[in-house]
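Risk register update: the risk of archive-format incompatibility is retired. Evidence:
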Amino acid sequence: MERHIRRLTQLGFALVTIGIGIQFYLFVQQLERGGAVTVTRPPGVEAFLPISSLMSLKYWLVSGDFNLIHPAGLLIFLFILATALILKRGFCSWVCPFGLLSEALARVHSRLFDKPRRVWRWLDWPLRSLKYILLGFFVVAILGMSAEALRDFLYGPYNRVADIKMLYFFTDASALTIKAIAGLILLSVLVRHFWCRYLCPYGALLGLTSLASFFKIRRNTTTCTDCKKCSRVCPANISVHRQKTVHSDECHACLQCVAACPVPDTLSFSAPLRKLPLKPLTVALLIIGLFLIGDGLARLGGVWQNSISINEYRHHLERIDDPAYQHAR
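Archived output:
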């Protein structure tokens, strides 16, 4: 049963994500038709606005103003960072729908090739740096913005409909967008976890944050038989058998190495000195609990749903193709 707990958790979050997407699509459809809006806008859709959330975080820190345009986005962003401080990049392998898709494509890879195809080590490192370059671009740009510039963007017309713009990006995808997505899928079949390993800036941020994670994969060097099974099953290509503690920013806390170890209690996902080892069920409950507690506190505090009324949404929708609603270039 333990081997299936992570997969069930992933599927559960994927179903929630799909449900949020469908609900938001129906909400926008009713806005466009001009009649009564009976579908509630799901705040969870703001999880897909990480750049706006990062800008909101800086604006909150420098001005003390908690932006209510997309408040759930900022809170979810903070919840996800919290998981990295506790459970490494557990979000990537337990929650993220793109992580689930990446694993599905990796299984296609395994069926096509007898042995996993890996990028040459001399090329792997510079490719892995790409996601940090992308992250650095966004962070430097946002850090360079004044409080006034941040306020103008966050309260401006573009950000007010950023969630709808994101929906249109997929529902009205251009030929270039479709080709780019198809290309990433193909690359993820040829090279396992291509997007997650080389291009995802969110993963880069979580990787850096996870360096301070309280729980890490830890190895008992006394009982280890050096069978290397842990390293062979690691989807991030980490040489687990060589490390007493896995500090790598690529560790997703998937616990596959722990499950593969033939010697009990030799590998554990645990606190320093191998204290408080966590089983898969405990990890799942911690992640789910963190999001449920955060969701509940946000609702009680009145900072979960945004402050945009139905009439204001319709006002913006009528003008969404105007220059003021286009992304600054």
